[in-house]
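2024-03-11 09:14:02 DEBUG pipeline.ingest accepted 1 chain
2024-03-11 09:14:02 DEBUG pipeline.ingest length=339
2024-03-11 09:14:03 DEBUG pipeline.predict start
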Amino acid sequence: MAAEPRDISSDLEPIRVKYKLPACASAVVEDSRITAIGATGLRRVDADVPVTKTDVWHIGSCTKSMTATLVGVLVDEGKLRWNMPVADVFPDILCHPSWRKVTVWDLVTQRSGLGTIARAMWPSGGTVRQQRGALARLLLAHSPAEAPGKFTYSNVGYGLLGSIIERASGQSYEDFLRAKIFGPLGLKTAGFGAPASPGKLDQPWGHRRSDDRLTPVEPLPENQFPPVLAPAGCVHMSLADFARYAAWLSSGEPRLVKPETFARLQTPPEGSSYAGGLWKSELPGIGGEAVCHTGHMGGFFAVFYASPHRACVSVFNTEGGGWEWLGDEITAAALKAAH
């Protein structure tokens, strides 16, 4: 019988206190088994409700590797090709000629030339699938901001991938994600948007920081990406489910995609360090090649690292673009405490 995971909550508490975080949590996986897990702090900074090891957290842009994997599923099924021009996915849309030079793989690896678009331009009204169709028409009517081939991080690019997934699969992005990743990996707590219910402390709340002041972020739709951009960063799940997903990135088992597709998704194009929603990196504190991604959304920060035999996920409920170093410090402490 496998041993219970080690409780590393006390090992994380000094970091939480040092950086004045409402809460933080982390879990370590070795050879696909969770060997250590811990959570410490409060669900909301102004309420005496502690987080638990079973709480649900927003993982933000860590969602991108799931979206890239769905594209891999469709390639394996023969419904897409990595080198397929984006314009060919939308034969009924009048596309700017430059989109014939942008491939599905360019979108997956953030080399499409797309940048950002103003929030006021994000489509609204109708169903989410209709909004993604409108986003595709909006983007494809114009040339990307830059020539394809150069890395430019783009959330709207992954929103466009959501529309491509819907075209090729015949399902909504959300349903296809549930069917191809959440279900097979047993991620029963996985969902979309803020983890907590509006007005309730049933899960952690996010926070924004200004100097030393922490302001809770109400778990409302307007404090999230709009659903049209869910493929870029709208998933939430428990710490254990997040760790199970990282374990899959470590092993490729159960087999959701062909081995060659799994390898491709983890191999950046020449001259880049970004592959299929994954950065090439190293495990913090202990070294060793790994893939990783960070995410921040709605007052949360999340990061995963996955290497062939070891993985770690870490979260805290303070939003922090540029706080990757803190995610790494929590991860390094968790990996050290697990041994």
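2024-03-11 09:14:41 DEBUG pipeline.report The longest strand covers residues 33-44.
2024-03-11 09:14:41 DEBUG pipeline.predict end
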